[in-house]
């Protein structure tokens, strides 16, 4: 049987299971939230037989399943018998931290039947104690920021991944068609000489060498690219530290066919390193 990397995320409500699942999702895991434990063996078999190979799976299983939860250990034993390997990540936090989170979010604790958050927390701790003992990793998130929880998870589970998971998407665009809605950073290159007004260049695009040579022959073009590259390279480690896995940079000119295309491609070539994956998207080309 092909070895699959299976992580079961569980723990106390409000301790960060959803945040943990998003971390695994960012690293290419196929994620399912609130899977009934009785379906575990069937689900694993479906993944194994899927046409598109699924070999990294993260499943959130907790007491929201109600009576289904009691089947968890039976299903885990069945997985072991069938040769599947898995690791259990248990997330917890102090009563004070959990109460504060529920107060701030104004959500009701799923096990606080009479509305008392503390009673729900105590009941859940008791019900989850056996699973906590079986966990491979226990993380207390009481004082962890989301970025710190991510660091803990990457350290324990993603250690074999390459460090090039940070994705930079550089989008060239025309201001006539609007700024990309999902851009984190936007730069305007309309201050550069425009090939559109050069008769022999007008019908070509920034992908053509003659247009690229025209745009990049100006001192201001070279200086802008140098300063932009320096700034983005400075920012990347800090974005990673704060938990970002993707940076979308918009570079715009008037129509999105000449200057922005050239600068997007030039910046992409400068930023490609072992730790980053860079993709260009010429939206209006």
Automatic annotation (TrEMBL):
Pfam families noted in UniProt: PapZ_C, RapZ-like_N
InterPro entries on file: P-loop_NTPase, RapZ-like, RapZ-like_N, RapZ_C
Residue ranges occupied by any RapZ-like N-terminal domain in the UniProt entry: 4-160
Entry annotated with the keyword Nucleotide-binding: yes
UniProt KW keywords: ATP-binding, GTP-binding, Nucleotide-binding
GO-annotated molecular function: ATP binding; GTP binding
Binding site for GTP: 62-65
Residue ranges of every copy of the RapZ C-terminal domain listed in the record: 167-285
Sequence positions that bind ATP: 11-18
PANTHER family hit by this protein: RNASE ADAPTER PROTEIN RAPZ (PTHR30448)
HAMAP family: RapZ_like
Annotated protein name in UniProt: UPF0042 nucleotide-binding protein
Origin species: Tepidanaerobacter syntrophicus
């Amino acid at each position: 049987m092909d070895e699959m990397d299976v992580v079961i995320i569980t723990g106390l409500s409000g301790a960060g299971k959803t945040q943990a699942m998003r971390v695994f999702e960012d690293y290419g895991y196929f994620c399912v939230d609130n899977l009934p434990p009785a379906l575990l063996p069937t689900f694993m078999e479906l993944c194994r037989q899927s046409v598109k190979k699924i070999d990294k799976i993260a499943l959130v299983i907790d007491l929201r399943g109600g009576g289904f939860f009691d089947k968890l250990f039976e299903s885990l034993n069945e997985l072991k018998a069938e040769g599947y390997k898995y690791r259990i990540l248990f997330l917890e936090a102090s009563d004070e931290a959990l109460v504060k989170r529920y107060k701030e979010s104004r959500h009701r604790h799923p096990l606080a039947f009479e509305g008392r958050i503390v009673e729900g927390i105590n009941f859940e701790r008791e019900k989850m104690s056996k699973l906590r003992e079986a966990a491979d990793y226990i993380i207390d998130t009481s004082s962890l920021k989301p970025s710190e929880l991510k660091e803990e998870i990457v350290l324990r589970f993603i250690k074999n991944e390459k460090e090039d998971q940070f994705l930079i998407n550089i989008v060239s665009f025309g201001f006539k068609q609007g700024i990309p809605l999902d851009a984190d950073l936007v730069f305007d290159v309309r201050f550069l000489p425009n090939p559109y007004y050069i008769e022999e260049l007008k019908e070509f695009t920034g992908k053509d060498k003659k247009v690229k040579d025209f745009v990049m022959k100006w001192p201001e073009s070279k200086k802008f690219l140098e300063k932009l590259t320096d700034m983005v390279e400075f920012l990347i480690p800090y974005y990673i530290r704060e938990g970002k896995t993707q940076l979308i940079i918009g570079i715009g000119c008037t129509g999105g066919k000449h200057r922005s295309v050239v600068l997007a491609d030039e910046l992409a070539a400068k930023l490609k390193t072992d730790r980053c994956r860079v993709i260009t998207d010429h939206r209006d080309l």
